[in-house]
Each structure stands twice: as structure tokens, then as C-alpha cells.
Amino acid sequence: MANQIKDNGIYVFDHDHVDAGNVEKSGPATTIYSFLTSRFAILGMILCSFGVIILIMTASLQFSNYSENALSNSAGVPMQYSVNAPRGNITDRNGVSLASSEEVNTLLIANAGMNDTDLNAMLLELSYLFDQYNAVSVTDLSNYLTINPYAFQKTPDEITSWQVSKNLFNLKEPKTAKVVTYSDGYVMSDPQIFFLYLRAKFNIDESYSPDEAYRIAVIRYQMFADSWAYSTGTPVKIATDVPQSLIQLLLEQNFKYKGIIASKDYRRVYSPLAEVSSHVVGYVGKISQDGLTQLQSMGYSSDDVVGQAGIESQMERYLHGQSGMKAYNIWTDAGDKGSYYSESIGTDPIPGANVTLTIDSRYQKVLLDGIKDYIASAAADELVRKTGNKTASAGAGVMLDVKTGDILAMVSYPNFDPSDFVLSMEGDTQAAEQVKYYLGVGKYEKITKDDTPLWNRAIMSQYAPGSTFKMVTAVAALETKVISPGSNTLVCTSPVEIGGWKFTCHERPVGGHGPLTLSRAFATSCNIYFQKLGVATGIDAIDEWGKKLGLGELSGVDLPGEFAGTRASRETKRLLRVQEYDKTWFPADTAQSAIGQFDNDFTILQLARYTAALATDNLVTPHVIKEVTAEDGTVLYTGSTAVTPVGISQSTLAAIKAGMEAVVSTDEGTARDTFLNFPIKIACKTGTAETGFETANKEYSNGLFVCYAPADDPQVAIAFVVEKGEYGAQTSVIAKKLLMAYFGISDSSSTGTVDTDASIGDIPTSVTTPAPTPTP
Amino acid sequence: MNNAKSGIEQLRNNYFRAVDYWLIVPILMLTVIGLFVLNGVLSSGYTDYPQNLYRQAGAAVLGTVVALVICLLETHFLKLIGWVIYSVSIMLLLIMPFDGYDMTAKWGADLWMNLPIIGTFQPSELTKIGLVLVAAFLFEEMANKTMTSRRGFLYLGLIYAVPLLLIARKDAGSAMVIIFSFLFILFIWGFKYRYILLALSVAVVGGLPIFWNFLLSSMQKQRILSLLFQGSDPQSEYNLIQAKSAISSGGLVGNMTGSYVSVPVKESDFIYSAVSEHMGFIGTTAVIVLSFLFLMRCLYVASKTTQKAYSYIIIGLAGGFAFHFIENMGMNVGLLPITGIPLPFISLGGTALMVNFISIGIILNISMNRKISRR
């Protein structure tokens, strides 16, 4: 029993760590030494040094004027709310409005400390006022539950997940089937019982009739859905589209309607023309969870509306503006004892910047209508109906300013109506259904992504260029001196073996065209000529010039989601084929590539850009944004008009131009009939590209067309495709309409008709069926 | 044994003379300051005011009583109590994913439980105490050479591994409290300086990247980054800017204008800024002096406690408090990274306050009985 009670003040507990000998000796020096080397003392000193540092740092903050800025931003106003900024406008190049912001009055409710009885009584009065003035509730309970008769408005599964949602009711799912009453915290499948539950949850007095109780519940539900914000003093939005007269009334009687704040919000409004340019303009929607995590640091909140596609998405940071923080004044239950906050406290919202597009709505409409009309007439075609083949259904087109790269028109059909997204956010069921179709959700799930109207075919779909590629083969041949502008005759015989593979000329299957010059080859779009030329030039040169002309390369357009496409080459074949024996390049592959088939797949924008490059020898940076200007007119951003010289010699360009002109000007030209007597000289090329589904799905080939005009002083380049719109020659009528609009030509001056005679079209050779392995 | 017992009986007879006022008085003063500040914070814009303040005050009174009752326990029960607290808290941690109250959406991260009557409660609070009690006795055995160091550290590793793994996932703050209180005991136990140096260099070289890449969620990373590179991320830095301006607005005696800077989580993580706002330099100095007075007293008592295990218990518990005090105040002034660590006895949170008073009770108990040794 050795109790070591030390009463004399000599602490020997530290003997483990301090040399015991030191402790035995007495004297101030040793005492201090043993104290200082004690681990307790060391620990104490370390801790205290932290204390001293914190004390000093605190004091230096308290006795300096730290961050006046942060103070003035939110100083002293515990009651504040964020005010949204109007979203910037989008206009076309002529200042025609495509998207704008409309101011709407909103009502918010802040916690005024009322008890449930008073609150419910006030909300009931408000509810009648809302009806009287046609104000719209924000989060509508009626989407889930209605009374008279009692019914849920969603599927049982959706209702269950709504009820178990942790942020809302947080009810439990019963493990076994049992009779549920409104008060035992389980999911209620009976709407009437659930309504009783709501009445109990919101403390709605029993003296209220079901109808009155429902009115109260509708508003209480909105506050409840945002209860976190509400409970921390942030006002919750309960109504939009509130007429000024009602605002006036509520403000005058603010002592009665406690906690009610009148605010403003902005709604996106799309003009009817925005539907024509839907893929360029894009649309807005509620911010996604991913988007929020990305943008939160820039001041976005979870109920923000952000751009989801097109320019709305691309220029989101410019268009959105910056929300402001404002103080609010309400009557609380405590009466008027609080302080009054001036309207000037806080920050004002900064309106979003305005975007001016290079798009011209007039051409946009002509191009879209052209594609639409063509598709309609193709469907009505007698021959088509007889064969039962799948015919034209979609298309895309681009018109470029060849000098600046301004995209004057960019169309993808089918298009969509951006207003549907706005309306569906506001609870329009018809628009919501439409949006479901656009997004391919619900029962539209089977529609593949690139079949939805949201898909911008002009930059996202990759089409085999078919004969519109032949200029690349010609440029490569001329630049590598395989042929020259003066000597370029090749003989078209049919059938003929090229690269170890047998091809037939589709126009003259027996015998062929005979000797053809480059111009005539362009005019007739003879495949044999360009296949022979391609094999003589070699795939490497064709690939090189394709690349220089921007094919299979991202154009850098200022729209989200551009695809690069692929260019047929040895490298591409190696990458695309799975089987080792498939990866070898054969001369027959060159023959196919030379006429724009095989692995060649480009976007329409690339084709337009490449046509423009053939006109000017400059590769432009295509863009749809002309400039972005702030509210005060400062230019924040300008579209890039930079060009890259391609490096094609003048003689080659002239030879190509002559060939492309021959397509219109000679009797054999595939687009001759369309542009007969057309006052402007144009250089163009038609194309009919095989998709590989012709036999299997009984589909027509894609009809393509590229051109620039006027041929002698190029201003614009056009490229478009009509899917299953065989033939390119026939689709050329769309280009004609567009050029007439651009040059202001009235209809009477040209008498071009659409020639449906297939013999004129440039039908490709049928080589998609697997052929015996050619000898390399 | 007889002597020991009679000693405790003696103490019971002179209960109020035996209570260590150097410990309890600073704590009670901190609690009063806390209630005063919370009254200011909660009265401006919190919905369930004043009920939440009443709850806090009730917890403080109850906690004081609990602490004084714990003083009456036989000190050697602490070993048993330690194991009970340890195992119960681990069980609670284990069942938590199934019956946890999901506050993540609102508060970022925490391990809360929703219990009837008591309300929300963090089992990790109990784990901190349980671990200290359990570890202290193992350290004692190692110090007395009744257990080899190898075996001792193996046991310690096992004891610490489970709760740390369970807690560190979501609540890095609590995990750090546990680690720091362990390190405090380790240091006092006599971990050789050259090993400390070695461990520090290993930790800096090897531990930091692992810690950074695997143990921190992106939110925690952002908080730490915002401290290292001030100005880098406005969202994460916002809290700090607001806290600093709140501190700044306090001046000498507090912000008398009645209009306060809005600081997120002002009632808990950023309560220190509210202390400055409502009481100014005088208040913050009082909080610092009182808390360090308490910590130094703990060290003093620990150094005078004859049985090593009890000494380690005090060091462990005080280490936890020290970490809380320093980290909370340090992050408010921008000295340390922002983590979700409240200021003990001041931040809002009834159950946390209760648990803290249990710790105080244990320290008080040991302090009263420090001159008695059990063999």
C-alpha cells in the first residue's frame, strides 16, 4: 500500500522523462531547467504560442479597418435576398430579336414569425386574390394532388418517391402492406388520407372546408418545398406573373400581408424566328446538378435558369449577368420594431450582355423552308410512293460569308421550338410533352440521339460527301502535277478495273463516257474519271489536301458539340477497322475515297468552309457570333474573322472554278436545269452519297450540294444535305432559292425547274456490297 | 485500498472544497459568454429562437450537474466506463448509415443521429472520450513496462482503426480531433524526440499526398486551398472573408450598431467571429484567456497526477479541447484551414455541450483524486 501522496510541492511524476538526478538537487536553476524540459511544460508552451498568435491576429483585425468592401456588401442586413439579372438578348445580324427577356412580377414570402393559424388565414386570403388577379403559383401542388375528386396526378411510383423524398415529406415505405393512417409516417397511397396528412402537417384548422384547406396547402407546399431557405430567412417565391394592380394592393396593405415581398424576375422569350434558328440560338432550362457544381463558384444558385444548347449555352457566362443582393423590409409579427433597410443597400443585379449573331433570319428561313419543301415534295413523289422506299426526312445547310467566315445561315431540320422549354418550366403540359419528345425521355426513349430535333445536323452529323469531295481529288492531282490545267484528259471506259476492282460508269454503263477533260468530268460527275485520277494521285496527297481544306478537322465554330468527322486515309483505316487483315490500304480504297465515299465523313459546316476555301484560297474561321456587347454598349467579344491561307496555286483554283462552273453552264452539267438563265454565275458541285442502307433499309441516298457565288467575285458559300434526298442534282433547287434571296432576284427572272430525270443525276457506282479481296 | 477509499470518502464529505475551481470556473464563464453571444446570433433571423437558446442553456445547467456528479465516481471505474463508452459509440457509428439523419444536403458533412427527445447527436463525440479512456490505460501499461511497446501499439492500432475508418469518411474534423488527442498522449507518454522528428518528416513527405488524394473530399480540399491561396476560390473564401469582417466589426467592445455581418454557420463553426462582433476585443480576449487557463490547468493537474493512466486521460481530453479551441479560433482569423470544428462551450449544440461537460466531469474527478494512487 504505497500511496505516493505528494503534498510538499515537489513533483516527481516527470522522473521518466527528466533525469532523476536533476530533481534531487534543489536550487532555482535546476528547478527552472527541470520545468522547461518537462514535456507538460513544452506542450503548454506550444499551445500558448498558438493562443498568443490567435490573440494577436484577432486584435489586428479588430483594430484595423479590414475589408470595408465585404462589410458594405452585406453589412448588417440579416434580411436579404438575391435579385435575378435579366438575361442578355440574342439578335441576328440585322438586329432582329431572336431571344429576349421579359420582366415578370413575382411575389416572395419571408418568415415573418407568424404562427400557423394566422399564416394560414393570410394565405387563404392571398389564394383568393391570386385567383382574382390570375397570378400563377410556382411549385404547384396540383401537379401531384387534386381534390374534388381526390386523386393523385402522377403514377403511384412517382407519388411514392415524392412522399419518401428526404427533402420533402421524408415518409417511410411500409415493409408490409398495412392500413395507413395520416399520422403514422408511412407512405399514403390514398389521396384523401394524404390530404389529411397535409392538413395536419401545415396545421390547417379543421374549421376550413376541404377547398379552403387545399388553397392554403398549395401555398404552404411551395414554402415547404423550400423550407430550408424559408427557415433561414431567405424569401421563397410563391407566385409569378403577378399583375401590377395586385402588387400595388399587397404593398398598400403590407401590415396585413406580413412577410410578402414584391420582386421581379425575368422570363426568356423567344421570337417566332428563334424557331427557325433553333439550333444556333439553343434553349434555356433549369440548371443541372453537374452544371451547378461547375458554376456555383460564379454565383449561380440551384434554381437558376441557364443555357442548355447553342449560343444560349456557349455564351452562358455573358448572357446570364450577375444576380444582385438586396435587403427587404417586411412586417413581422413583432410589429414594426425592426430597422428599415434602404433600397440602396446591397448590390444591384448586372444585366446579361447582348449577343449579336452573324445569322440573317431571312436566309435562315429560306434555307429551312427550302429543305422543308423539298422533303414535302419528295414524300409526295409518285415514284417514291410506288417503290415504298424511305425518303427524305431530315436535312442541314450552312451559308458562309467566304471572306469573313460569318455564318449567314445554319439550319438543321427537323428543328425545335425553344419556347417549349420555357413554357414547360412554367408547367404547360403540352409544351412539357414536346420537351420530353425533344429530349427523348419517357415514351420517346427509343428515338436515338441523332434523330431528335435537338441534334444540330450542321455540325454534329457526319455525312459522306459523295461527289462534292471530287474537288479535293482534283486539287490534289493538280497540285502534285499528276494532271495540269492544260492537259487533264482521262478516258472513261465501262466496265473498268481500277485498283484491282471492277467499276462501272453509272451514266454510261456500257462503254463509258470516253475521253473526258477535268471540266467535263465535273459537269457529268463521272466517277470513273475521278477514281482513275485518285488512284494516279495517291491517297496520301488526297488526304493531305483534304486536311488543308479543313475536311475532317474541327472548324472551331463557336457552338457547342461540333464533331470532327473522319477523312479516308491509311491512318484512319488502321484506326477504324477491328480485324488486322482489314487494316491494309488497297488502291481500290483510294478509288472509293476519291469520289467521297469510304471513310470520308464530314459535317456540312466543313463542306461549306471547304467550298469557301476553293473560292478564295483562304480557310475561314466559321462563327455565328458577331459580337457581344454589355448593357452600356462596350464590346466584350467579337467573332474571329481570321483566315488561314490554304496554299493552292492560282492555276489550280482557276481549273477547279472552271469545272464547278461547268456543272451549271454546260449542257451535261448536273445542276444545269436548276440554274438555267440564272443571272448570277455560280460554281457548284452536286453529290449523291451512299449511306450503305440503300439495299438493307430500302432508303434513298443522301443528296448533297455545295456552291459558291458569284463565281467571279465570290461572296457566299453554301453547303447542305437532304438525308435520303437523292439526288444532289435535285436538291440544288434549295440553293437556288437561297441565292435568289441573297442577291435579291425575283422569281420571274429565272425559269429553272427541278429535273427529276434520274439519268442526269450523279448516281454513284454500287460498290458497297463486299467485293472479293482485290489483289494489291 | 483502504486508504484510497477513505480519501475519497473524505473528499465527498468536503465536496465543494475539493472541486477544482481552476478547472470549472473558466468553463462556466466560457459557457456564459457562449450563451450571451448565441442570444445575439440566434435572435437575428433564426426561426426557432428562443427555444434553441433555452435548449442550450438547459444543456449547460444539466451538463454542469452531470460533471459534478461524475466527480463522485470512484476514479478506477473510468477504465470500465471507457470501454463501455467506446463500444457503445462504435455500435452507434455502425448503425448510423441505416438510421442516420441526413443532414448532408444542408450542412456539407456530419455524422448525426436523430434520437427521440435528445434530438440530433453525433456518436463520434462519444468516441473521442471512449478512445482516450481506453488508450490511456494501455499507455500506462506500456509506461509501467507491464506490456511491451510492440504489443501495446498493436492494441492501440486496433482500437483506433475501427472508429477512425468509420468517422474519417465523412467527418475529417472529428477524425483530426481523435488523432491529435492521441498524439498529445503519445508525446506525454515519452515518445522520443528523435522519433517525433522522424515521424514528422515522414508525415510531411509521405503522408501529405495520401491525405490530400484519398482522405479529403473536394469540399475539404477547397477549404484548405482557399486558405493557402487566398483569393483563389470566391465560394470557399467567402466564409472566411465574412468571418474576418465580422471579427473586424467588433472593435474594442463589440459592434454596437445592431447590424451584423452575415457569416454562414455563425452559430457553430464561425461562432468566434460572432464573439468578436458582440463583445469585441474584450470578449475574444476573455475567450482566449479562459480557454487557455483551462488548458494550462489541465496540464498542471496532469503533471501532478500520480497514476499515469489518469494523467494520460486528462492529456487526451485536454488535447481534444485544445485542438477544438485552436482550430476554431485559428480558422476564424485565417490562421488554419476551415474545417467543421465548433468552439467548445460556446457554439450552439446541446448534445455537444453535454458531452463536453462529461469530459470536464472526468477531468474534475481525476483532479480531485489526483493525490490518490491505486495499485
Descriptive overview:
The complex is a heterodimer of chains A (776) and B (375). Chain A has 776 residues and is of the alpha+beta class. Chain A is built from 28 helices and 26 strands. In chain A, the strands form eight sheets. In chain A, strands 2, 3, 4, 7, 8, 13, 21 and 22 form an eight-stranded mixed β-sheet that branches. In chain A, strands 15-14-26-25-24 form a five-stranded antiparallel β-sheet, with helices on both faces. The termini of chain A are far apart. With 375 residues, chain B is an all-alpha fold. Chain B has one domain. Chain B is built from 15 helices and two strands. In chain B, strands 1-2 form a two-stranded antiparallel ribbon. In chain B, strand 1 and strand 2 form a beta hairpin. The longest helix of chain B is centred in the C-terminal third of the chain and has 34 residues. The N and C termini of chain B lie close together (8 Å). Chains A and B meet through helix 3 and helix 4 of A and helix 1, helix 9, helix 12, helix 13 and helix 14 of B.
Brief synopsis:
With 776 residues, chain A is α+β, with helices and mostly antiparallel strands.
Mean pLDDT score of chain B: 79
Intertermini distance of chain B: 8 Å
Radius of gyration of chain B: 21 Å
Quickly count the domains of chain B. 1
Question: What is the spatial order of strands in the main beta sheet of chain B?
Answer: 1-2
Considering residues with a beta carbon less than 8 A from a beta carbon on another chain, report the largest interface and each chain's count: A-B, 55 and 67 residues
Unreliable parts of chain B: 98-110, 230-235
Beta-strand residue percentage of chain A: 15-25%
Distance between the amino and carboxyl termini of chain A:
104 Å
From the alpha-carbon coordinates, what is the Rg of chain A to the nearest angstrom? 37 Å
Number of beta-strand segments of chain B: 2
Count of DSSP helices of chain A?
Answer: 28
**Model regions low in confidence, pLDDT < 50 over at least 5 residues of chain A:** 1-23, 67-77, 335-339, 748-776
Shape of chain B: globular
Largest sheet of chain A: 8 strands, mixed
What is the share of helical residues of chain A? 25-40%
**What do the pLDDT scores of chain A average to?**
79
State the helical fraction of chain B.
Answer: over 70%
